[in-house]
Write a structure and sequence with these properties.
alpha/beta, Rossmann fold, 2 domains, 7-stranded parallel sheet, 6-stranded parallel sheet, 37% helix, globular
């Protein structure tokens, strides 16, 4: 029995593709792990993270694979490695071997969603004693029938595997396939996202360059409002055509600028000075760290009503949630109208909302409470 004041030995599983560090650029899930690791150590818990070799974390690192398998070339394109499956296999093997030999681990927190419990090494790893919590970071459509089949087998076998979602929207989709024991929102370290009351006159968009992220819509909003737009983010190789055909021809270095990928320190300067953060997504985003990062800096968010957006943005208070039920032309005009109303939003309300709902301290407390319930 784990008492409420007992310190835990927590084992988190990161991806094998991106080294964890305060300087990393791409990586939403990886940031969640980095922040939680820091908070667990502050709370006196023992924190171990399985991640690539060059990772720099607060706790103990289980180094599994060479760092940086996702490489950015001279043109700024992030290339997916051809031997990606080998990275994943090595990562899984090292993790299962470690867990099989370390019975003192209290809880395994798998952040890869479709990875450890559906892999062949886990099937052989019946000797893993610790319960496993799998956080569903991914969209439900990204998982194959084989993954869901593996989850069902695990449930019938009675193995100690649990699932949590990162938004109510995501839970509603996943609970059709798997039992979801809790919803825990992401949080951020507020001291790294300083508040700024005074704003400049530009729109800001940050995220992986992708049709589903909707940067082409942000460009249309900028053109219709006559405002400057700053676009930041990574270009993955599978999205290069989208960038070349729908984004790059509109970049003029004046009204529409593309500044590439940013680390946390760099993006804060753009967040805190922006008039508004645009998020015209074309998919059911499970969470979206960028929304709380922007609001923490006092910058309101205008986003389409998809996925977790209405759970994170308080319509009319910290930004505007734009209706997506009437077609693309309507959505665009509504987003333009929202930009023109942005003066109604107080930066201090944006900051306060994140302080009250989305701090890393709150997220870490919620996970510790969930760990204890699972263990007991």
């Amino acid at each position: 029995m784990i008492e409420n004041n007992d310190k835990l030995k927590i084992f988190q599983i990161s991806t094998p593709y991106i080294a964890l560090s305060p300087e990393m650029k791409y990586g939403g899930t990886e940031r969640v792990i980095l922040y939680l690791d820091e908070q667990f150590v502050k709370g006196g818990h023992s924190s171990i993270v399985a991640a690539p070799r060059e990772s720099r974390i607060a706790g103990e690192l289980l180094s599994t694979v060479p760092s940086g398998s996702w490489r950015v070339n001279e043109e700024g394109i992030m290339r997916t490695p051809k031997d990606r499956s080998q990275y994943t296999e090595t990562h899984e093997r090292e993790i299962v071997n470690f867990l099989s030999k370390n019975e003192e681990i209290d809880i395994v927190h798998d952040h890869m969603s479709n990875f450890l419990i559906s892999g062949e090494y886990f099937e052989r790893g019946q000797q893993i004693r610790a319960p496993i919590l799998t956080t569903l970071h991914v969209p439900y459509l990204n998982l194959s029938p084989e993954i869901y089949g593996a989850w069902r087998r695990i449930k019938t076998e009675g193995r100690k595997v649990f699932f949590n979602a990162i938004s109510q929207s995501q839970k509603r989709h996943f609970e059709k396939k798997v039992d979801v024991c809790d919803v825990i929102y992401h949080g951020i370290p507020l001291d790294r996202f300083p508040f700024e009351e005074k704003k400049s006159d530009y729109l800001f968009s940050l995220g992986k360059i992708s049709y589903k992220k909707g940067q082409h819509i942000a460009i249309e909003v900028a053109k219709k409002t006559g405002m400057r737009l700053i676009i930041a983010g990574e270009i993955q190789d599978r999205e290069e055509i989208y960038f070349r055909e729908m984004i790059e021809p509109n970049i003029d270095g004046d009204q529409i600028r593309f500044i590439g990928s940013l680390n946390d320190q760099e993006k804060v300067e753009w967040y805190k000075n922006a008039l508004v953060f645009l998020m015209p997504i074309n998919w059911e985003e499970a969470f979206g760290l960028v929304m709380i990062e922007s609001m923490a800096c006092g910058t309101p968010v205008i986003a389409f009503n998809r996925g977790s957006v209405p759970e994170i943005v308080k319509h009319g208070k910290t930004g505007f949630v734009v209706d997506t039920s009437r077609g693309a032309d309507y959505e665009l005009e509504e987003m333009v109208r929202a930009v023109n109303r942005i003066g109604e939003i107080k930066p201090a309300d944006c900051r306060r909302h994140v302080e009250e709902e989305f701090s890393i301290e709150e997220e870490a407390r919620n996970y510790i409470e969930l760990y204890r319930r699972i263990i007991n």
